[in-house]
Amino acid sequence: MRFPLRLSVLGILALAAFGCARQGYPTGGPKDETPPTVLSTNPPNESRHFDGKEFFVQFDEYVVLKNATENVLVSPPMKEKPEFTTKGRGVLVRIKDTLQPNTTYLFQFKDAIADFTEGNLLPSYEYVFSTGEAMDTLSLRGTVVDARSGKPRKETVTVMAYGADDVPSDTMATTEQPLFVTRCDKDGNFAFHYIPEGRYRLVALEDKNANLRVDAAEGVAWDIAPMASHASGDSTAPVAALRLSTPDTRVQRVLKGEFAEQGRIVISTLLPMQSPTATGVEAEWRLNDKRDTLWGWCLDAKRDSAVVVLADAGINDTLRLRYTAKRSGGRRQAAVRQETMPLMRSLCSGTTAFYDELWMAFDRPVTEIGDSAMAEVMNLKDSTVGHWPVKLDSSGLKARIDAPLHSGETYSVFLREGLFADLYGTRSDSLRFSLTPRDYGTLSIDIANHTGKALVVEVMDSRDTVVQQQRLEGSGRLRFIHLKGGDYRLRAVVDTDGDGCWTPGDYRRQRQPEEAVMFHKTLSLREKWEMEERWEVDTLPFGSLRRTQAMPAKSVDIQRP
After folding, report:
1. Are strands 138-146 and 239-244 parallel, antiparallel or unpaired?
2. Cα–Cα distance measured from residue 428 to residue 363, given in angstroms and rounded to the nearest whole number
3. Buried b / exposed e along 320-346 (16+ C-beta atoms within 10 A)
4. Tens of pLDDT along 401-453?
5. What are the residues facing 64 on neighbouring strands?
6. Domains of the chain
């Protein structure tokens, strides 16, 4: 009878002890965020007369390799890539290529090694050896920025060094292997270490296929100003700047041609059209504001097939088009006839007024407007009513009401039916809408243009989207009106080719990207305010970190200190 009682007591004590243990269980301490540390190498780092086929790097903990074939850069590059494996607490590198005599080889491990337990990356590690008696010790630092924005590229950028006099500068990076290679960090900075004395050209490349060659549609920058090198690792060495841009290799072509509905054709192209002509069908044609879409309204509103020949710069295409009604619930929808569609709609509603003007849009070209077309505009604040003329845009797709408006006040706008008629003779229905024009700010910029060339001055919002731009010949004042309140930045493009926009570089033609100069500060604009600034737009010293001037090809002169 005592035996079961004893077991019960022991069971209770065991549970109590287990509960206490759970309450005091250790958390394990803070997470390990320390990358692995190199303890030793075999042969030793910076060895001379290296004639082996492998080397070993010992760490203080077990490590793993992260895409070592791509993340380990070897200078000079090897035709046959080395083999990287882990062995114990280290990394073994087997060299498969034939080493050149009297040459310094540098292995740059960039984010290629991480510890086994937490995955902490070793940001960079360099192993160097010489196959001869001498060890090259010079360095070259620089930075690569986006030629238009001045910011580092998010994509991985590889920088290659070539002998300045070895091959023609316009072909070297398309056909020849570089002497040395390195890679930019996230801030766009790069450095060549353990390089010999000499003259070099640099090419920075978004090397998407990792072939160390400039291919079409890859971002590229090239050439720097002459500069002197310092010993490897010397942070006081001068910094050279390269401006990287992606060439526009797109070829004009038709993206889409279709009947959007009976009687209406839509043709879109990859690039803006210049002066397109469309033949083969009787239609009214209109080009959109971006010039990449051509709308056609057939004179026969029920037409559902056509052979259209589109001709423009780079285009001479024959399009065979047929309308296909969309299906809904397994049944074909009946085609909507043009004459039953509403002709007129407002572009100004709620608080999204189109600046300080009233606009209407039409779904089809308007060919007729009443002799005294007027709009009734009521100010709901005091119920005053005015009648204001309506003016048709030259495209026939928009109309403007010339009514004075005040921001912050609500208006009701009424247009009676029958004011407009489209190409099919359909008259417009009546239209009533209301709006409250919002407040806007104005930027006035006095520009002293010291570049000697025309500028395209761009206003960019907080997302670096260009919201307005103006062209300036010489110096003068520019006013950017109807800007919403917010932060803005200014950029001036030196329009060398006169096309009204920024032009990227072209390595094969040895054409540097057009200069893009940023204003030195962000402008915080308030609505109802006009901000005034003065800006001296000038080129900066060649080779400067902020250099943006398109310069002719030059070479780097590396000399011993």
Report:
1. parallel
2. 11
3. ebebeeeeeeeeeeeeeebeeeebbeb
4. 888 888 778 899 999 988 999 999 988 888 888 888 777 889 999 999 998 89
5. 114
6. 38-130 (2.60.40.1220), 254-332 (2.60.40), 338-435 (2.60.40.1220), 441-537 (2.60.40.10)
